[in-house]
Amino acid sequence: AGGRAAVLALGVLVAACAATSPRVLHFGMEDAPEGKRLMWPQAPEVPRFMYAGQLIGEANFRKTPAETAGVRGLLRRLADLVVGEKPPTVLQRPQSGTVDGTGRILVTDASRQAVFVFDPVTGELQVWDKAEGLANFVAPNGITSGADGQILVADAELGVVARLDARGNPGRAIGRGVLKRPTGLAYDAVRKRIFVADTHM
Question: pTM for this one?
Answer without folding.
Answer: 0.78
